[in-house]
Every structure is written in C-alpha cells, then in structure tokens.
## 1
Amino acid sequence: MTLEVFSFIKIPLGKDNVSSTPLEKATSLSIFFMLVACGSGGATPAPKTPWEPSLAEYFDDSVDFTVNPQSLSGHWLIKYQEQLKVRLTKSEHILAVGVVSVTKKSATEGRECKDIFASIKAEVKGKWNKDNVTLRVCDNQAGFDSFREEDSRLFERTFIAFLKLYRSQDNSVGIHWHLSPLSQGLKDGMNAIRNESREKKKATESKKYIYDTQKRR
C-alpha cells in the first residue's frame, strides 16, 4: 500500500467544519495536500484500475456529515476507520471541494437523478484536469436521499471527495464517489493511515535489507 506524499497547505473551513475550542474556531485547518493548479478544461481521467463490486460499499455515491469522528465508539468507530482506509487507498482521485449546486436531472429508464456540481479547492491525490467536478446519484441508489437541495450543510462546508472511476457499458468514464466533511478528525485519520503505511514500508525495506545482506555472506 503506497500513498502519495502531500505538500503542506491550509484550507479554510466552512463555519461548521471546526472543532470546539475558540482558538481552533478562529483558525483554518492545516492538512496535508498536494497543491496543484487546476485548469478549467479537460476530460475526466481514465480509470487506473478496474471497478470491483466489493468497493460499492465504500464509494456509495453519498455524503456523510460526520464532523467529529472522535465521538464515535465501538462498532461505529471501527467501521468509520475501515471505510476511511479503503477510500484513501482505493481512490484514484481525492479532492477538496465545495458544493455549488444540486440539480435534479432525468436519466435513462425514467430514473430521477441529482447532479452535485462542486468546485475544486485542492487535489489531495491524483491529478484532476478541471477546476470542477460533477457527481451524480440516482433514485435507485442508497445515497439519493442524502442530498437535499435545501440542506444548508452541503454548501457551508468543505468536503473531501473520494473518487473511484469506472468504465460503463458504452465505454464512457463514470465516477463512484463519497463525500466526507473536512475536519480535524478526518485529517488525523488520514495522517494515521499515511503514517501506518510509511511504517509498514520501512519494516518491509528493513527485512529485505537484512535478507539481502545475509544472502551475500
């Protein structure tokens, strides 16, 4: 498992993306991001790996509003940590975004869908070719009801968008995704997974070094 090296920048929080102390409320959240210039044009990148049905649980085309994952316990905490780890490692693109609009659309087979149009504030993982992204969810998907146009929480927060691309039957590129609010707890969870990955890599390299040294004797 490898994770990209992030540069250190600051992204302002929405008014609800803050922790409880006055000092933290007065400052922006520091998080590791890869800072890149996003162009206004360009096509959606191609998938790097095939879509796996087992990933549907993690890239469920929905949003959660878990601002303080530290408050979770027991089964819910274990589940949150598992989902974050899979999303962080299996995403081809991770973006910091702000939701601009939620629009109802009609799709094939009479399905009602919602298009979530979001502006990109930073790229966390992978290079995106545009300064925006449109995420779709339809009424036959569990995440459909998690998006309500009147829900102000969608527009007041910065979200982390975990994206997994796939090829549809007509060979076009689609996106399965999940949105989580940017928060100190999310940052800490992402950094913990990154640090765990680094430690495992160091241990593997150390074992290989010892093995190669003994083999040369």
## 2
Amino acid sequence: MANWSGVNFDTSSNERISRVADTERNLRLEALLGVEIEIAGIRLRQITGYDILEFEYAENKLLMGGKPDESDFCHFLWTLRHKSEKKNQKKIFKIVFQQMESVSFLEKVYSLIDSAFHDLPAGGKKVEKSYEANPKVWMMGIIDIIAHEYGWTYDEIMNTPFERTLQLYQYILKRLIGDKYNIRNPLTQKASMAELAKQQNG
C-alpha cells in the first residue's frame, strides 16, 4: 500500500480526495445500516454472502464474468428485490428488458456489485493450488474467521450484507496481524494516486 505521509497535496487536491473519501465512507455506512437501494424503480436490498454463492452456483455472468444477457440481469434483480418491493416477477423482468440499452442502468447494477466487494482484501479470492481446476469455495476462509472471532452461526454470517462482513473481516485481520496489515480504502487510495500523478506531471 502506498504511504502518503510524505506527500503534500494542495487545497484543491485535498478537497477532491475528501469528496471521494466521503463517498467511500457512505458506501460502508449503507452496508452497516442495510440501506435500501433502488435501480430502475426496483427496490433492492444489500447483497449477502448467500446471494453471491447463489449467483456463482447459477453461473450468473454478472459475477462470474463473460457477457451477461437479460436472464442474468433478471436473475440478479429478482433475487435482490427488497421485501418492500411490490412488483411481481413479470413486471421486474419487463423493466430489465426495457433497460438493457440504458448506460445508467448498467452502471448502477455493476456499481452495486462492486460495492459488495469493496472491502475484500487484495488476493481475497486467490486459492493456492498446483493444478488448474479449483474445487474450493473462496468465501469459506472469511466465514471461518468471522465464525471463530465472533461466534456467529453460518446463517448469521451468510444473511449479513457481504460488504458489512468484509468490513468486520478487515478489522479482524488488522487486530490479528497488526501493523503488517493496512485497512484498504481503495477509492480514496485511487483518488490520492491520481492526484499524485497530476502533481508529478505538473
């Protein structure tokens, strides 16, 4: 991780970095509070660990990679519909088909996915192996540590917004590893690097 202790940013740079930091903090607060999300008029809840594994099991391309089609978006939004959402499946699917050409709609969906993984430590999905096939479920290490440290049940962990789980996971790592582990603030760090590049390039 970059060390910014010896870098002096001007007032404008600091203001831009601060705005990004506020955005990053709000993303975390939304996960901690379980804030309802709305995309294309559809009320959605926060993504949980269960959701992520269900999407992976169903090979939903929004999370697994590749070019997603309408069925991936329909599956994604129907799964995440908030309990307060009154639209039925047919109505939600109709909205998806209408929105597939909307850049704003696509950006909001991908932003929701990104926010769920925001606090995932670097290499969080890495699995050590000497062969190409990967029979392991990458999330189990996170589940194991949370269960061990807090005494939560599997269902409690998996029904928690995943970004909330990852925030706790980062603080557990910080407590166990100490100064060798730094809490990731990817958005703020990226903004700081951009401002540093501007400064160095004049």
## 3
Amino acid sequence: MENNQLDHAGGEETGTRSGIPVWIWVLAGILIGGLFATAGFLIFTSDGPSASGVAKRASEVVFEHPGQGFSLTYPKGWKRLNKGELANYEGAFSFGIKHEKPSALIGVRVQKLDAEGAELKEVSRALDRTMPDRFDDFTKIGEEMLTLSSGGDALIYDYTFLADRDTRIREQLLIVPTVEKVYYVTAWAEAKSFTRVLKDVDRITRSFSTE
C-alpha cells in the first residue's frame, strides 16, 4: 500500500460566518474554486442519503492530508499533481490528481469555516439560483445527498457549462461541511468524455473521509 502524506496547510481559505448564512460562504468558495479549476483544467485538456466509503483495492493509492484532516483513495492510473502543476490554480487547491486519456482532473479545496449544521438542501437551492448566472450555458444534471464513511453529510452537485474555446465541461462537485472547515472535491472533464472516467470519479468521491 502506498501512502502519501502532506503536512503543510496549502490550499486553505479562511472565512467566518459573521452573521451571514453559511451557504453564502459555501457558494463563494465554490465559485472561486470553480474559476481557478476551469482555467487550470484547460491547460491540461488535449482533445434519500446513501452510504459512502469504498474499500481500497491493490491498484489504488491512499492519500492522507493530516494538516487539513482529509483522506481519499484513487486509482494508480491517476497521477498526483506536483507543486508546479498546483501553482496553475494560484493556491486554490491543496491536492489534485489528473487522468491522461481522457483528460480529467480532480481537485480538493478547503475553506476554513464553521459549517456544522449547514443545510445542504439550502446550499443546493442557492446553487440552482446562482450557477446559471456564473457559467455560460449552465445545465444541471442532478444532485445526491451522501453520508460519508466518517459520518458527515455531503452533497454531490453535477452540472455542465461552456468554457473557453466553446468546450463543454462537466463538473461533479462534492461539498462536505464540518465543524471547522468546508471541503470541496471537484472532478472536471470534457462532457463528451466524462462518462469514461465516471466510475473512477464515483469511487474517489465516495472514498473521501474527514477526521
């Protein structure tokens, strides 16, 4: 078993509630991360609740980030982004992996925020209202409420939009609110090829765990 650990706190955004509804902070984190993610992805592009938690296979890598309190597993066919590649996102992400053929990316963004008790249905409704104004030709595919293996609730929000070069991108976003942080795990690929990595994306998403 290969274990990767990262001790520093890169890719973390701080925030406070300050009397403002939690979903507004969550929405801001999603939109900021989405802008960086889409730009970075195009650099690499070449052409009721259910239970989560996935048992690791021999062909998978376990990644742990003690400093930010999360872990996940991913297939060895995906390659971890190095510091130089992460720099394309200007510090927005603390961890990322990429798939070559077809081109795909998964990034983890961390927002320091007390989001315990955040209403994920309210976050979803806010995304429904806001995303069409933020992304060209936005189309929602669906959503799903999850219970992570670590016990927390999470939301998967799935959608497509038009990026630069008239490339249609599909993003699948996992939102995980906790007592001290909100985690965003986002998968990107061209919409026409997303189904080819969907099984991997699903396993990676459902393996995500917080301390």
